[in-house]
Amino acid sequence: MQQHLHKKLRAVPSPMCPCGDAEQDAAHILQDCRNLQPLRREIWTRPVPLHEKLHGPVEALHKTTSFITRAGLHV
Q1: pLDDT mean by block of 10 residues, the chain; 75 residues
Q2: Eight-state DSSP code of residue 74
Q3: ∠26-14-25 over CA atoms, to 5°?
Q4: How does DSSP assign 2-13, residue by residue?
Q5: Rounded to an integer, what distance in angstroms lies between the CA atom of residue 73 and that of residue 6?
Q6: How far is CA 68 from CA 12, 36, 62, in A?
Q7: Non-local CB neighbours of 13 within 8 Å, separated by 6+ positions
Q8: pTM above the 0.85 mark?
C-alpha cells in the first residue's frame, strides 16, 4: 500500500526530480532529495520515518504540510 501512495503523490508532471537523482515521488521528496535537505533538516530536527510523515499524528502531518508548502511543491 505504501508504494501505491508514493506513485500517486507526484509533485510535477515529469517523473524525474530536478536534482537528477531519482523520480520525484513522496519517498524521494520527503526523505532523500539533496536539494530539499536544508529545509528537511529545519523542519525535522531528528530523522523521521516516511510512514510517520505520511500517516503520523496531527503534529507530524502539520510538519509534512509545512515542508511541502515551503518547498513550493504542488500536489
Answers
A1: 48 77 94 97 97 97 97 86
A2: -
A3: 10
A4: HHHHHHH--SSS
A5: 15
A6: 12, 10, 10
A7: none
A8: no
